[in-house]
Amino acid sequence: MKTLLIALIALLHLSTAFADDGKTGKFVVADTAQKFADTATDIRKQMEPGGRFEFIKPGDKEVVNSDLDRMAAMLQKSGSVAAMSADDRIKLFNVQEHLNGVLTHSDSERLVCERTAPVGSHIPTTTCRTYGEIERQRQQTARYLSENQNRDAQLRRDPEKRGH
Q: What is the pLDDT of residues 82-129, one digit of tens each?
């Protein structure tokens, strides 16, 4: 049991020592209250339009803000991870991992691959795009369909605009 606790604490120190390197999916660094405040500000900015997490769902955005606030309160109370009790370190680690999971899912740079057979073929191919590309195409398609539906509705109401 004691060995497991020591291993968890060592894991917590390792996981909080690294920022996002583009490979690990770790976006939140919780080492000291000041470093974390800077990280939290950056994450909140990245959730705005044009940011890395611009496509985050409103519910997930609330979760992210709540987790950031919880982590800030924990770090503010102790000043740093090193000054925390073992129980508080584990709580901080769990909140951090939850937060990283939500952010990773909403990362516009996350690669999503699908395997489909093109029309006219039985041979499937793999296509990979970023989550951001998928969401931008989805929004563009929805906007196009909405504009066409509005245009059709106007033509039905005013037949003179049809140009026939």
A: 999 999 999 999 998 899 888 888 777 888 888 899 899 999 999 898
Q: Per residue in 28-44, pLDDT tens?
A: 766 788 889 999 999 99
Q: Which two tokens stand for residue 21?
A: 């390197």
Tell me 117's DSSP state.
P
Bridge partner residues of 130 (DSSP): 111
Please choose, from the candidates 4, 34, 24, the residue with its C-alpha nearest in 3D space to the C-alpha of residue 107: 24
In DSSP terms, 115 is beta-bridged to 126
Q: d(Cα 47, Cα 66) in Å, to the nearest integer?
A: 14
Provide the 8-state DSSP code for 49. Answer: T
Q: Are 32 and 21 in contact (CB under 8 A)?
A: no
Helix (H) or strand (E) holding 102: helix 86-106
Domain ranges, ordered by start, for the chain: 2-106, 111-162
Q: How many CB atoms lie within 10 A of CB 90?
A: 16
Phi, psi of 117 (to 5 degrees): -90, 125
SS3 125: strand
Asked if residues 35 and 29 have their Cβ atoms less than 8 Å apart, the reply is yes
Give the β-pairing of 111-116 and 125-130. Answer: antiparallel
